[in-house]
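Hey everyone, long-time lurker, first post.

I ran two proteins through the pipeline my lab uses and got sequence/structure pairs for each. Pasting them in order. The first:
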Amino acid sequence: MAWTVLIVSGVLEAVWAAALSASEGFRKPRPTVLFAVALVASMAGLAWAMTDLPTGTAYAVWVGIGATLTVVWGFVTGQDRPNVARVLLLVLLVGSVVGLKAVS
C-alpha cells in the first residue's frame, strides 16, 4: 500500500509542478488552486509512505517520478524539446527509480 501511495504522490508532484508553471506567478486562480491541492496531497502521501518505507528510497522514488513526468509533460506540451541525450537520461532516471524499488 505504501508503494501505491508513493507512486500517486509522485504523479501529484508532476501535477503541482505543471500547475505552478501554468499559474503564471499565482496570477491565474484555477492553476493556483490545483497547485495548492496537489502540493498538499503529494506531500501528505509522501509523508505517509515514509512511515513504512526508508526515507531515502521513498524520497528518491517520489522525486524521480515527479521529475520524469514533468519533463515528459514538457515534451508533450512543447515547452521542452526532446533530444537523444534527454531521452536517454530519462530512461536512466526511470531505471534508477525501478532499481531502488527492486532493492528495497
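...and the second, right after it:
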Amino acid sequence: MTQQVTFTRDELRDALSENDLTRLSAMLHGADPGEIVEELRRLRGEDRAIVFRLLSKDQALDVFERLDHPTQGDLVRLLQAHETAAVFEDLDPDDRVSLLDELPAGIAAKLMRGLSGGERELTAVVLGYASGSIGRRMSPEVVTIPIDSTVGQALGRAKSRALEAETIYTLPVVDQSRRLLGVVGLRDLLAADEASPVRDLVVKANTAQATEPAEVAARRCSELGHLALPVVDHEDRLVGILTVDDALAILEEAESEDQARMSGTEPVRGHYLATPLSRLVRSRVVWLLVLAIGASLTVQVLEIFEATLSQMIVLSVFVPLLIGTGGNTGNQAATTVTRALALGEVRGRDWFRVVRREMAVGAMLGVTLGGLGFVITGLLYGLGIGSVIGLTLLTVCTVAATVGGTMPLVAKAVHADPAVFSNPFISTFIDATGLLVYFGIAKLILGI
C-alpha cells in the first residue's frame, strides 16, 4: 500500500514561491488526492498548472476528476493541449461535456478532435441536448440487458462492462429497438438461478425524459431513493442513465444558485479564494445597480410626503421599522414558496391557494405585530400614532406576504428563476408600497 504523505499549506506555498520543484514533487508524491484537490482549488494561475504538471499520470487523472468544472476549465486553459488530451479522454462523457461548457469554443473543438472515435460519439450524444436538460447531465455509458437474456447472460454482460459503465447496480432492460421495458437490480440477478429468464425479474422503471430540466429529474431520483434513473427519449428509447451521485451534485448546484440569487448576486462557481476579484465584482455589481434603481422609488415616495413629515416629525422615526418588517415578511413568504416549488409541493395551478394562504398568514402576523405596535407606541406617543402604526403593520404584513408568495409563481409562469424574483426585488417593492400605505393611513387618521 502506498504511504500517504501529507504537507502543510505553508510548505506548498513556500516551495512554489522559491520555485523548488524538487521539494514540491517530493511533497506531492504519494499525497492524498483529496488534499491535492483542495490546494489546487485555492491556487491561481501558473501555480495551479505547475502543481498539476508535477503529478504522476494516475494522480493527475484522479485529481482532475475530483475538481469542479470551473477549476477544470481554468486548468485546461493553462496547460498545453498534449498535457490535457489523455486526461480528457479518460473522463466520463457527462463530465467531459460539463468541462467543454466551461471552455472557449476553440479549445473545446481542439479537445473534441483529439478524442478517439468511440469517445467522441458518446460525447456528441450528450452535447446534442440543450443546456440545463437532464440529457446534458446523463451518462450514455449504460449496460443494457436484452429482454430475452437469461440471468447468467445478464451477469456476464454486466461483468464484462463493469469498469467502463457508469453503474451496474441498476440495469435497464430493453427490446431490440432499445425501447426501455423496465429495470433489474444486480442483487436480484445474483440471487436468481442463472438459467432463469431475465423477464421474470424485470420491474417497472421510473424514468426521466432527456429534454426535461436537470433539477426536476435529479429531485425525482433523490426523492424516489433510486441508485440510478434511466433517461429516455420521446419514444421511450433508452439514451442514458442518471446516477444518484450526479443527481445530488445537480441539486447542490441548484441550491447554491438559488441562495446566491436570493441574496442579490450571481453564483460564483469554483473556489472562493481562487476566484479573480473581477469575477466577484461582476457577480454582484449588476444586481446592486438594479436594486439601487429600485430603491430610488423609496426616495421618491419620501419626497412626495415631505410636507407630511415636516408637520409631524415623529412619523419619520418609524419608517425603518415599518419597511424592514414588510421586507422581512415578504422575504419569508418568497423563500417558503420558492422552496415548495423546488420540491414539487406547489405548482403553477396552485397560485390561488398560495395567495389565499399567504394572505391569511400575513393578516395573522399583521394582527400580532400591529397589536403590539399599537399598545407600545400608543403608550409612548398617544393613541393616534399607535393607531397609525398598528394599522400600517397589519396592512403591510398582509400585502408583503401576499406579494412575496405570489412572485415566485409569477416567475415560474414566465419561465424565469423564482429565486431572481425573491428577496432583493420584494424588499424594494415593499419599501415603496409600505411607505405609501403608512403615510396614507397617517393622513387619514391624524388629518395632516
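Reply from user beta_strand_b:
Welcome! Quick read of the second one: The radius of gyration is 29 Å. DSSP finds 21 helices and six strands in the chain.
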